[in-house]
Amino acid sequence: MNSIDILKYGHLTVLATIDDLDAAACEVSGVCGIWSVKQIMAHLASHELVLADVLKSILGGTETPYLDANIAQGVAFNDLEVEQRDGQSYEAIMREYKDAAAKTQALITRVSADQQREIGLLPWYGAEYDLEDLIAYSNYGHKREHCAQINVYRDSLK
What we know:
With about 160 residues, this protein is mostly helical. It has helices spanning about 5-20, 35-60, 65-75, 75-85, 90-110, 115, 130-155.
């Protein structure tokens, strides 16, 4: 598996999916449950920051506030992170998402292939999984799922 490519293409899929949606269309709720495109992007930004923390921790970093919150809060993390961004503009959320994606794409280049394939490196994720699994399922797959929801919404705009 090529984690660099998976992160790159997941990010490009998100950007292509939201391309040319105006900010007003991104505020309409109901795209994913009650969430709007803006809220989905806030959610994806927070998860990109979790992945950045995961990569930093593998590289020896000790401050991982998003990863720590994700582990401690469980599923509540999603709504809490979206709520924290509700007052921000769509443009600000997109900047945060893009900056976080750039950070993860830069950090993954510093993680060795052996570390990426080390089973049990992320015990909180599952003893039988490795970093490549996390990237494929919890990052790329997660983005694809939300992009599909956004595409259904885009079809309703036609």
